[in-house]
Each structure stands twice: as C-alpha cells, then as structure tokens.
Amino acid sequence: MTTGLTCYRHPNRETGVSCAHCGRGLCPDCMVFTPVGIKCAEHAGVPTGTARVVEGARRFGIEGGGALLTKILIGINVLVFLWQVGSGGTLSQPYGYPYLHGALNGILVANGDWWRLFTSMFLHASVIHLGMNMLFLWWIAAPAEQALGRARFALLYLVSGLAGAAGALLLSAPEATTVGASGALFGILGAAFIFERQRNYVLGGGALTIIVLNLAFTFAIPGISIGGHLGGLAGGALSALALSRLGRAHAAYGRPGLAGIAGVGAVGIASVAISYWAVAGYV
Predict the structure, then answer these.
(1) CA 68 to CA 144: how far, in whole Å?
(2) For residues 44 and 112, is the Cβ–Cβ distance under 8 A?
(3) In this structure, what DSSP letter does residue 177 have?
(4) What is the pLDDT of residue 51?
(5) Which of 15, 81, 100, 183 supports an S-S bond with 228, CB 3.0-4.6 Å?
(6) Angle at Cα 67 formed by Cα 126 and Cα 51, nearest 5°?
(7) Residue 172 has what DSSP assignment?
(8) Separation CA 105–CA 97 (nearest Å)
(9) Predicted local distance difference test score (pLDDT) of residue 250
(10) 47-282: CATH class
(11) CB 78 within 8 A of CB 158
(12) Average pLDDT, the chain
C-alpha cells in the first residue's frame, strides 16, 4: 500500500515515518532517533531561528572548514576594495580603476559596458558600506551555503546579483551609479524565504523577519538602492522555486534536474534582458 508520503530529502522514496516536529517524511537514511521520537536532521537538537544563524557563523569561524565559498566571496570583495583605495579612492569616497570601470551606471551600460552588471556586485562605496555588507554576508551566506551546497549557492548568488543590477537600473535615474553586494544578499534572503516555506529551514525559520527588517531599512535610509534590493529579492526567490522545482524537490538533497538548472538560468537571462530594456533609451 502506498502512503503518498515521501522523504523530504529523497522525494523518490516513499515512507510511513514522519518527523515528530514538522511532519516531513523520513526515509531510513534521514531518520534521527531522539528521546522524544524520530525527527529530521533540522529538528534533532539543532538551534533554530536567530540562534541557528549565530551558531552556524560561530562554528564556521572556529572550525575553519565550512562556508569556503562565502569566505572566498568576502576575500574578493575586500581585495577589490583595497584595489579601489590603492588606485585613487579613499576609505570614504569611491574612486579608483575598478570603480570607474566596474560600477553600475545606466548610461555606460547602454553604451556597451555590459560587464558592469556583474562587476558592480563586488564594489563598495566606502569601508563602512563594505564592512556592513560583509558582516551580513557572513551571517546569512554561511548557513545558506552549508544548507544548499557550494554549486547551488554559487548559482543563486550570481543570478541574484544580476537580478539586483536589473532592479537598480529599472528604478534608478540614468546617471545614478550603484555598487554593492546587497542585491545578491537580498537574493539569499529571498531564496531562504521560499525554502523555509517548503520546510527547509535554511536560516532557522527567521528568513521572513530578517527580510522585513532589512526592507524597513531600505526604504527608511536615503541613498540605498531600493531597486537593487527588490530585484535581488525577487531573483533569489524565483531561483529557489526553480531549484526546488516549485517545492517538489529538496533544495539541497533533491535533484533540480535540467528543468531546475534551466529555470535558474532563465532568471539570469531575464535579468539581463530587463537591464537591456531599462537602459535602451539612454544611448
């Protein structure tokens, strides 16, 4: 007799056992036996909410073996900022070779500088801007990378950054210049929100709260790219839906298949197309 219940990590395996905490199906490989019943890995004594995010970042910092891609991204952003300062910029004023040739600007993109859609996500306007983004990157990207795996996390980060650039170009004046990793960061939050609605608690169940707080800051503080944040958020959410095949596969353990990867690619292509449309009249 078929139960209709499948393992949340292995959707192709039917099971009659579910987590005592969240009710998700568990195959024998995914069962964790606890004093209060059988649970999934996420609920077998693992911290939840903000505690999980903080604990994850602390553990990675002490053990040094996790979140390799997150550490690489932080290193790239820091090195690029040092390059900015060393080639004419200051700690509080953006300038220098990478900024002049890599910052996002609608008029320059319209005239052929399409690489700015990518390079702008590694540039920052000041050391404070860099510090805040890198701290936030460490807090949310380390547990997200651990939950999703490096390959899926890298794809999500890249596409979210492109979506953030599209949003910035769409809602900014032609002469406005935008830099920063926040589009990609909001993409991680958008993806985490979708995954957590599917009971994959990437940020320990706190994704929605973190999104609301950061959107409040986005609209309250002048000078922040509203379009960049909203674009990244939408790009990350759509990418998460594609990777999980609209909830039919687990974000990390299920196979996204060709359709899932193609879906994420489509989000990236759509982001570039929206950018093209947004600046088409600036030539």
Answers:
(1) 12
(2) no
(3) E
(4) 47
(5) 183
(6) 85
(7) S
(8) 15
(9) 63
(10) mainly alpha
(11) no
(12) 86
Q: How confident is the model at residue 240 (pLDDT cuts 50, 70, 90)?
A: very high
- Catalytic residue set: 182, 229
Phi, psi of 41 (to 5 degrees): -60, -35
Identify which of 123, 110, 126, 145 has the alpha carbon closest to the alpha carbon of residue 275.
110
Mind giving me the DSSP string for 27-68? -GGG-EEETTEEE-GGGSS---HHHHHHHHHHHHHHH--S-H
- Whether the CB-CB separation of 129 and 180 falls below 8 Å is answered with yes
Give the integer Cα–Cα distance in Å for 112 and 63: 45
Element (H, E) at 3: none
The CATH 1.20.1540.10 domain(s) of the chain lie at 47-282
Full DSSP string of 76-127: HHHHHHHHHHHTT--SSS--SHHHHHHSEEHHHHHTT-TTHHHHGGG--SSH
Phi, psi of 147 (to 5 degrees): -75, -35
Q: For 63, phi and psi rounded to 5 degrees?
A: -80, -30
